[in-house]
Write a structure and sequence with these properties.
With 373 residues, this protein is mainly α. The chain is built from 19 helices and no strands.
């Protein structure tokens, strides 16, 4: 077949137009992955948003975007990203599992279970499929979830995650002694710090403080930067009225991850120990961090909606949303970065540069793209 000259030219021009966008998307994706490995999640998410807009049919990018959105609690947007990934690559198991678990979190458990059952029916002897079904059932029917996790362990006795999650649902079903037994079995096969941590928390909830402290200290010994374990240890010591020990553990938790609940618990400990001045300072810091977290959430939501507008071509609406995001939180770097992208599309190069510079100053991981006049 002879291709008409004008059609051949258009195909060549089309490929030349797409190539820069695909290359840019790949570069953004690679940078986002590195930023994620470095723990710079806000910068990573911002670049993934941009990459997804440039390459909307790239399943890997869409799945990674969904994971980043899920991390900040934007669950509905994460579901959309996972669905998009599966539309482009139906056999993408990781995206399928991610979608099932995200559906559970947003309250669409029936669809999650239906999808998970379909996977199991395709290969009933696949332990991981039974495990995913158990996770989907955990918020719907604990009895069914227990059965699925036990089935997983029949297929793969060394499946530590299945045993760990079986312990979780047994504990929720008020079967704490069975949960403890399962965790001890898991420790015998694979002594992970998360297993020590959960065992410690269950003992704590049962009022068994001594074994709780032993397990939490074991978790910390294996993973020195385990902030949740330090916080739980501080809480157990607080329950035992060991004010000095509790304050020490909570301060170690804050050094690892400063958040409102930990400062608040430390404030309570200091107040109970008679340190009123220290307690006031910690209560104040707890409130400051609570307000900052709230501002971060508001800014991230408006930024996400703004990016949807930008990708749909409604640039001015996007600009308005990004400005509202920066007003909600002047320190939210991704909003400035996306504002720069939107202003560049409007031909406002100098304002775009200023927005990109502000983003990079707040978060050096957000390197400004080349600006074309």
């Amino acid at each position: 077949m002879i291709v008409p000259v004008y059609l051949a030219i258009s195909l060549v021009l089309g490929s030349l137009t797409l190539a820069p966008a695909q290359d840019r998307a790949k570069d953004l994706y690679d940078r986002a992955a590195q930023l994620e490995r470095d723990g710079n999640y806000p910068a990573s998410l911002s670049l993934l948003w941009e990459a997804a807009g440039l390459a909307p049919r790239d399943a890997e990018i869409q799945n990674r975007l969904g994971e980043a959105l899920e991390r900040i609690g934007a669950l509905d947007a994460a579901v959309v990203a996972y669905r998009t990934a599966l539309q482009q690559k139906p056999e993408f198991r990781k995206a399928s599992n991610n979608l099932i678990l995200a559906l559970v979190k947003v309250g669409r458990g029936d669809e999650a279970v239906q999808r998970a059952r379909a996977l199991v029916s395709e290969d009933p002897k696949d332990a991981d499929r039974s495990f995913t079904l158990g996770l989907a059932q955990s918020e719907q029917n604990i009895t069914d979830a227990i059965a699925s996790f036990r089935r997983t362990l029949e297929l793969a006795p060394q499946h530590t995650l299945a045993r760990y999650n079986l312990a979780l649902v047994l504990n929720r079903a008020d079967q704490a002694s069975q949960a403890i037994d399962e965790l001890k079995r898991a420790l015998a096969k694979d002594p992970q710090p998360q297993i020590h941590y959960l065992l410690g928390v269950i003992y704590w909830r049962q009022g068994e403080f001594d074994p709780a402290i032993i397990e939490l200290k074991a978790a910390i010994a294996q993973q020195s930067n385990y902030a949740d374990a330090q916080f739980a240890l501080g809480s157990v010591l607080k329950a035992r009225k060991d004010w000095a020990g509790a304050a020490s553990a909570l301060r170690r938790a804050i050094a690892l991850r400063s958040d409102s609940p930990t400062h608040y618990t430390l404030a309570q400990v200091l107040q109970l120990s008679g340190d009123e001045a220290g307690a006031r300072a910690e209560f104040a810091e707890s409130e400051r961090l609570r307000q900052r977290t709230e501002a971060d959430q508001q800014a991230s939501v408006m930024t996400a909606v703004g990016i949807e507008k930008l990708n749909a071509g409604d640039v001015q609406a996007a600009v308005d949303l990004f400005r509202r995001a920066t007003a909600a939180n002047e320190q939210y770097a991704p909003a400035y970065y996306q504002l720069g992208r939107a202003l560049e599309r409007l031909g406002r190069a100098q304002e775009a540069r200023e927005a990109f510079l502000r983003a990079a100053k707040l978060n050096p991981g957000l390197v400004a793209p080349p600006i074309h006049k």
